[in-house]
Amino acid sequence: MEKQHKTITIYHLLVTTIIISLAIASFALCIMCELNKSKKKELRVDGELCSLPQSRAFGYGIAALMCSSVAQITGTMLFIVCRCSSDFKSLKTSFASILLLLSWASFIIMMILTGTATSMNRRQEVGEGWVDGECYLVKNGVYVGSGTLVLIATSSTLLSCYLMISKSRAMHAQAK
After folding, report:
1. What's residue 143's pLDDT?
2. Which helix (H) or strand (E) holds 82?
3. What is the pLDDT of residues 79-110, one digit of tens each?
4. With CB atoms 3.0 to 4.6 Å apart as the test, which of 29, 95, 117, 121 could cross-link to 138 if both were Cys?
5. From CA 41, how far away is CA 26, in angstroms rounded?
6. From what superkingdom does this record's organism come (predicted)?
7. pLDDT band at residue 4, thresholds of 50, 70 and 90?
8. Are residues 157 and 96 in contact, defined by beta-carbon separation less than 8 angstroms?
9. pLDDT surpasses 70 at 25
């Protein structure tokens, strides 16, 4: 029984390390997007038509979206595994579920912000632009805000998992 508990603890530690690494990578990629996004000086205007070249922020943004998606899904799976091994009627379980809901809300807002801003950093051809033939630039701070939301989402997920794990450990200690 003790060996199984150590194996589960190592599994939780490994998964948590992966989630944290992916969240930090996503945050760093968001910062790189902010530094490499299309700038006003790159905007070319031909009469009423405009064009923008593709910036590096496009690739970094896609990578940030992928890292944060994998971290969020992995964290949710860890939460589900921990919840299946604990009591469903606990106050800690309800609070952990609310934290997970906050995590998903932050994640969805981050995905919308990063996805939209990333698509604006794709090549905008003359007369096509991003929407309605007009060129758009990402406002300062959008990617930093997205990176912050990644950290909020990951922290909420991991805290909800921690609450579930501590509840599970308390139940195992009482059983002994």
Report:
1. 95
2. helix 57-84
3. 888 777 655 556 567 888 899 999 999 999 99
4. 117
5. 27
6. Eukaryota
7. low
8. no
9. yes
Contact 78, 142 (CB under 8 A): no
| DSSP secondary structure of 6-75 | HHHHHHHHHHHHHHHHHHHHHHHHHHHHHHHS--GGG-EEETTEEEBPPPTHHHHHHHHHHHHHHHHHHH
What phi-psi label fits residue 84: left (phi over 0), alpha (psi between -120 and 50 degrees) or beta? Answer: alpha
**At a CB cut-off of 8 Å and minimum separation 6, what does 158 contact?**
16, 19, 20, 75
Q: Would you put residue 135 in left (φ > 0), alpha (ψ -120 to 50) or beta? A: beta
DSSP E strands, 35-176: 44-46, 49-51
pLDDT, tens digit, 9 for 90 and up, residues 59-73: 999 999 999 999 999
Tokens at residue 83, please? 């919840």
